[in-house]
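Researcher: Let's try something more involved. This one mixes different molecule types, so please make sure each is placed in the same coordinate frame as the others.
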Amino acid sequence: MKMRAPITTIAAALVATTLVGGASAQMRDVKDKISGNAVNEGIQKNLAEEIGAGRGDVLTQNSSIYIIKRDPFRAIRRGRQLFQRKFLPSQGFGGRDRVGNIQADPSVGAGVVDSCAGCHGRPRGAAGHGGDVFTRPDSRDAPHLFGLGLQEQLGDEITTALRAQRSAAVAAALSSHTAQNVALTAKGINYGTLIVNSDGTVNTSGVVGVNPDLRVRPFFAQGGTVSIREFVVGAFNAEMGLQSDDPDLAAAAIRHQRVTTPAGMVLDGSLDALEAPPVTTTGTDPDGDSIVGEMPVALVDYMEFYLLNYFKPAVSISPDRAATVAAGRAVFTNAGCASCHVPSLTIDRDRRVADLDTVFSDFTPGDGNTTTDGNPINHLFATATARFVTVDDPPPDPVLKNPALQSFVVQNFFADLKRHDLGPNFWERNFDGSIQKLVMTEPLWGVATTAPYGHDGRSQTLEDVILRHGGEAQAARDTFNSMSRANKDFMLAFLNSLVLFSPDDTASNLAPINPAAANFPQNGHGAIALTALFNNTADRE
Amino acid sequence: MAARNMQRVAWYAGVFGLGAGALYWALAPGAEHTRPARASVHAAASGTAHLQEVTALARAEHGAAPRLVAAYDDWAAEPDALAARKAALDALFAEPNLPKKLSSVLEAVEADPTPPERDPLWQPLVASLADVWRGDALNHGLDLMIAETRPRARRALISSFAWLANSPRARELSPAQSQTLGNDFIDLYQQLPASQKPEVLSALRNVAGRDAADILEGRSSELERQYQRALEDTQALSQKAAQNSEQP
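Model: All components are placed in one shared frame. Result:
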């Protein structure tokens, strides 16, 4: 077993002869349906080719497990193409009769969209933000999905740590016959206290920011979902009318088993209440569109793996703004914002196969060195770094590329994975008239790109949404409000440095800019071109 | 590695020949310099034994690190063991494998109960750590500074980067590294012990300018004053323009 070299050098030679993948959001596959596409942009494989040999296993060629384990960057790219794919009615899209009790099933209020990118499509071609859906009376904005895998892993590791503290306290209480008072802390975040009585029973009344089961649920504003896989299967059904009979969720949520998904997420139905798939019997057609098997497990595997590995947001600070942004970061810290919007957290065992660090880089072709230049479109440059180990396998199969499972510092995250009461301005009505008061701390990475703000998009500016805070954040809000105009603007400048980006429009060490290309920058603008890392770079996704 | 360690240990043995007690008195801040000569003789005997033990450990090709760590920590309360402890620390730093080196050094640092302010080996430790942060190790160290949760080890890491940022080597940092380091100092500042804040503020001024440091100290920054003046000038110009436009 050996650690793979950084991607930097691997890609450089490859990319020169490799066509970069398509750059449009909400793409159609170009193979079967579309003519007149002289530049051949779009999804290169049709849906059947993407499904391939199904889930299979590590020895079944062209199966999702085989590709995830042996050709992981292809798997990521395939997930991305699925994310952008505009599904057709003949593929099961839509067809769902949206009637029913919206209190019991908020998704009745959701519209039907033909692609993931329809709601999570900005900036273009990204798993970003953009949609607004009527799953709550006052609707919610679709959040961006950058760094989603890091969020899932942080939530999972925090849960494990909190539960270990609970188990230790129970054991101590039972062995000593004395009550135990535990300060629940994980990754430096305080989740209140737990009292374990001498008989081993647990009093969770002092637990804060998480359910009494100590399971951190990072996804959705109210903190409702544990895993990317549940999120994906749920969204395919609720937003697109595509039902999956995912066997992993069925095993964990219905049969209460412990399963490990191909992306490495452990779903333990004996410990957690998980979301069951919409189809539990193969061959059933709950939406009555006469199509069964609308979302095969292989596609769910690719989508989960893609979002696990999806890029974290960028930090874009031009040199002339560096002092202002640093001052704004200091103001942010002094105001107490960082007590909930925690800047950095560490993952102990990172399941991703690569990391991508994206920062400001000016377009300076005149200096003779364009290898790390941003392009004139967004002035960003991304550096990909491998985080996998290879395991040799006898031919004809290619080597296994397993995640290195090293620790990883999630910089510029700005969240604590806890629920908070931010006061009436942030409360949310449910359809039954009750009020949802607790919301997860929104990670601030990428915030500059995601206007309008708040889970419901009802705040027009960053300053609006800051001043909207109350409740547990009242003091920090008041501190901000009392600042000089200068310090307020510094803090806003800092927040405006936390941006999203279009991967296909961002130069990287996988595909740097080429100012000599014809019609630059429409050609040669560089990209985060995972194609360069495929086992067979000529076989495009 | 063993040969290099031998050279180091031989040097310490030479120094120790001059008297371990005298060495300790020279290094320890505020040490009592009127200690009776007889105590010094005992200290020298004990210190010699410790140093010989470290010398033997440093010669060992494998498996010495845990015992060097233990020696470093077990003798923390023995003033006469200072040279031996310094030799143990140097032997740990001589480990060529970076993760192993950092693991054992930080384990030794964490287990030492001496408050950093009263630890005569703290500054040499911090300087040696700062010297590790070169090339790829620098980025690794920046991550480690955030990831480390053991308080004394974390403090040593932060101080080592403050040392680096306060040294001429700060100029060797890339713009991205300077930015990351500055951000880290800002993010960590509120959690620092009061005695560590000055060195971090000084370092922050070096890598990110004085304004962020002034703000963390609760002071008005020059940037803020300039900005306010610019705002006032703009407002004044706007008012003047409005007045002029009202005139026939």
